[in-house]
Amino acid sequence: MDAIAIKKEVGFAAADEYIKSGMKIGLGTGTTAIWCARRVGELMRQGKLRDILAVPTSSQTELECQQLGIPLRSLNDPEIAGELDITVDGADEVDSDLCLTKGGGGALLIEKIVAYASKRFIVVVDSKKLVSHLGITFPIPTEVLRLARVPAEKAFTQLGAQPEVRLAVKKMGPVITDNGNILLDLTFKSPFDPRKMEVDLSLIPGVLGNGIFARCKPEVLIGHPDGKIETIR
Ligand code: 5RP
């Protein structure tokens, strides 16, 4: 199977297996998680899923859900009351303890709020995302208040990271997130303790979010090139 087919397979599987009528769901961002949203839309159109309320993790997912006719709410809405039954999202890296990095699509801040507000967190990836150590091959994104860039860069360097401002592709200058901030991607030369690093990064003033997800106990669906889907809990 090619890369897109694997992403579709695993995204569809998450919707088919885990999302039930009446659920309040978080819908993730990226080229894998979007297939879960598409499948939810399809099942709703077929009448096989009813009474779904969804919280999107980005403007990408919000737009897609609006096109699919999936009813959207915020975490603050009384119908959601700050807690979701389940969230399905992608990841950039998954280690053997099921610690993750996320934020390749720049949505890490809302993705983390939504994931940590969910009773179950399902992660959909292809097998290329499995790594022995986080942050070595794929940089760890952080969302930073614009006025805090330089002090944050210094603090990142002290933690052993090389920070780089993420630049936009079809616009000059930095990527501006859905929340109006910039992204600094961190590359580490040597392995670190993800649980500790997630907290250390979150203590830096002006750093609003980081892409390490080490405290969320995900269930990970891994799509393989032969079409098999493996589940790791
Ligand atoms: C976006 C994310 C994505 O879930 C992550 O980057 C994986 O994306 P893809 O499935 O396209 O590889 O965290 O902020």
Quick recap:
The chain is of the alpha/beta class. The protein is built from 6 helices and 13 strands.
Q: Can you give keywords for this protein?
A:
binds ribulose-5-phosphate; 233 residues; 6 helices; alpha/beta; six-stranded mixed sheet; four-stranded antiparallel sheet
The spatial strand order of the largest sheet comes to 2-1-3-6-12-13
Q: Estimate percent helicity.
A: 25-40%
Please tally the helical runs, counting DSSP H or I stretches of 4 or more residues.
6
Secondary-structure element order, N to C: HEHEHEEEHEEHEEHEEEE
* Alpha-carbon distance between the two ends: 25 Å
| Bound ligands, each once | ribulose-5-phosphate
* Poorly predicted tracts of residues: none
Mean of all residue-level pLDDT scores? 97
DSSP E strands, number: 13
C-alpha Rg (nearest Å): 17 Å
Beta-strand percent range: 25-35%
Largest sheet geometry? 6 strands, mixed
Structural class: alpha/beta
Bulk shape: globular
What does this structure look like?
- By secondary structure, the protein is α/β, with parallel strands linked by helices.
- Helices cover 29% and strands 25% of the residues.
- The strands form 3 sheets. The chain has a 6-stranded mixed sheet with strand order 2-1-3-6-12-13. A 4-stranded antiparallel sheet has the order 8-9-7-10. Strands 4-5-11 form a 3-stranded antiparallel sheet, with helices on one face.
- A hairpin with a 5-residue loop joins strand 12 and strand 13.
- Helix 1 packs across helix 2 and helix 2 runs parallel beside helix 3.
- The radius of gyration is 17 Å and the shape is globular.
- The two termini are 25 Å apart.
- Bound molecules: ribulose-5-phosphate.
